[in-house]
Amino acid sequence: MASNEAVIGTGGLEVGGNALGRDNYLNHGKGLRSWLLTLDHKRIGVMYLCVILASFFLGGVFAELIRTKLLTPGNSALMKADEYNQMFTLHGAIMIFLFVIPGIPATLGNFVLPLMLGAKDVAFPRLNLASFYMWVGGALLALGSIVTGAVDTGWTFYTPYSTTTNTNVISMVAGVFILGFSSIFTGLNFVVSIHKLRPAGMSWFRMPLFLWGIYGTAILQIMATPVLGITLLLLIAERALGVGIFDPALGGDPVLFQHFFWFYSHPAVYIMILPAMGVISELVSVFSRKHIFGYKFVALSSIAIAVISFLVWGHHMFVAGQSNLASMIFSFLTFMVAIPSAIKVFNWVTTMYKGSIWLTTPMLYVLSFLFLFGIGGLTGLFLGALAVDVHLHDTYFVVAHFHYVMFGGTVIAFLGGLHYWWPKMFGRMYSEFWGRIAALLIFVGFNTTFFTQFVMGSHGAPRRSYHYLPEFEGYHRLSTIGAYILGVGFLIIAVYLIHSLFRGRPAPSNPWGGATLEWRTTSPPPHDNFATPPAAGDPYDVEAWRWEGSVGGFVPRTPAPEPAGS
Amino acid sequence: MRLGQFILDRLVGGAAVQTDGTFWMPVQASSGAEPVDSIFGFIFWVSVFFFVLIVALMVTFVIRYRRRPGREDAEPSPRHHTALEVTWTVIPIAIVVVIFVWGFKAYLDINTPPPNAYEILVTGQKWKWLFTYPNGHVDEDLHVPVDAPVRLVMTSEDVIHGFYIPAFRLKRDVLPGRYVKVWFRAIKPGEYQIYCTQYCGTGHSDMWAKAVVHEPGGFERWLEEASNFLKTMSPSRAGEQLYRTRGCAQCHTVDGRGSTGPTWKGLFGSHVPLDGGKTIVADENYLRTCILDPTQNVPLGFQPVMPTFKGRLKDDEITAIIEYIKTLR
After folding, report:
1. Cβ atoms of residues A331 and A318 within 8 Å
2. How far is B274 from chain A (nearest CA, A)?
3. Does the predicted TM-score (pTM) go above 0.90?
């Protein structure tokens, strides 16, 4: 039986046990340098977690300020029009480039991927550290623009406004360019790791679905991000050198920028959602105590989404000035890309059928995800339908749609994954009571904030508007109340998670009964992940684990499976 | 709809929500609105069906199969079911293809103006829409006759703007260096909101205008009167209209605030120090020279960037502007 350091006092029931008082990756090597120069994927994941959560906090502060201004339709003492425009630009740019795109892959992916492969680390640990420092450098350049002349173009940088505004576009855009390398390096690392580091017995279709999600994302990161990089360089060249590629007075075309920009930025939203879907696949199985339903369709749908995502960028441009034929093709493909996502949702719900549904905090996030991503995905149908999009484009309907998928989808799944892997990462359990309260507040707050915006948008309220007509005031007030509820929910999470680091119950190796390989080592894991690499089995064989009260977690029902192809 | 309004009023006590149109949509003021709303409605009910189905199943499973003593493990059930999975792939594909075709057909109608539509030129600039009618009259609002196809030929003077009339379900980005064309047929007399929807800077959310749909006969009367505003309005009022519609407002304020050019408040009769040392009194002749030959007599502290209005403003228009400036004490 492959096992890792049987825990004292539990009769050897556990595979590993809690390692807080022993050597683990957190205390292996001390001092700031051992962290800043680490090659350990787990420490890199934790460092990413800190900076990415800090970015989320910053982007969230801007959001709360924006929503506060929008309580009143006219001028506001809180901020002038220019400041408002800078604020929504920063909110978008920070949330997208600093938080959601790196988000799950850089934090949970980095920590969990090698463990799920039974491996010691990713394929290229130095590249991993380099990608972290690329993130830091890019973030500093981008955020530095706040001080030197905060950008007011919107996160989409449309020309000619972005080439003529006197805010520091070059600093922000150069920062994003460098952040792109962080994304590319991470993607490259993960692709190679998944191809090369899978253990014996883990064929592609025996791989956890989280890794399929990370894999699809990594392909997009490698192939799409360079296009953004080149686009941003062209934007800098236009501003600094006046080359004229986007300037009609010099024979250029401002709409060309949009094609270049969206060619990356549409796949980017699938970079955001594919890992989230991978997390949900893991969580719904574990917390239904049941094998995932339809594994093959779920796995292949990640690849289908990744491929088709490259072919739909023009759905951001139905009214921008492209031909009817182009619009038709993009609309058709947009509807096609919705299908694999719908399939996943059906598979997840069916996984719950006849299961044993355990309403822990991570599971509450799964249920929230199904509800919120369901609305987000369905509202995409309205926007994919050409004639309807003419009415809804650039209104609050679009703002509501993308918040439902990016926030109600990715962020909710991120929270679910964070709460799921937290005991593994830090060896501590957090307060289930406060976890559930916060999950509920976030669900209620989110819907209050954003459902309202669908109705505003279909009534014609344009987005990015400092002033608005008084007829929308009631909607805006309701939306802002929701935003404050959301803020309270997140503050509660911050408090109990930080509290758990000091006072949480020591976590067992497998608090939730997961069947993937990270649960076969200590919580937190040792520096090298496994004392002896575990044998790969069916990643959804959760029924092979049973609850054991004396360890406060799950133990194998029978001895662990034999290594030879089970 | 009323219930929604009631709840919102009680909860937030702010201005009441939309009182015309439906819960989701504004009034249908153009012939293109009803097709759009029909597709919206179809997608809406399909979405409601699937959403309720998914949530109901989810909630039912959570309750029926909740983990409890005696139910720590799942019941045996298949790990996949090809027929089911194919069914729930094929049916959604069929539904979205229907939505796609319907949406595409209506879109082609939106983009295909009928022949002999009445043509109005639209100019977008930071931060104002201007509408030029076939007789040359320039107005800040869009006026159209009811029940007649109208074609808008639109261009931007600077950055990309977005022309949007929600009640018409009409929207198009307006580009610099290019003309874009849309058409509509208004079916309901009234006044409707026009917005800019493509972010364009400080005044983006101030780029408001009105689409005024006239009863039969009303449009021609309006155009006649509006075009003759120089004869029908007092010179100073006509001058104010020209200030707003002919490009003066972009660089000159009337309330004392600084801008690219000198403010007009208190300008008439004041002593203006010029670049070069002289001082001049801002009388009628000075103001006329500024308009026709602005590189002469540039005021101190300002750049010589004002374009000439020779050929762009007629003599009676210049007189009206000067009369307006005189009222700004």
Report:
1. yes
2. 29
3. yes
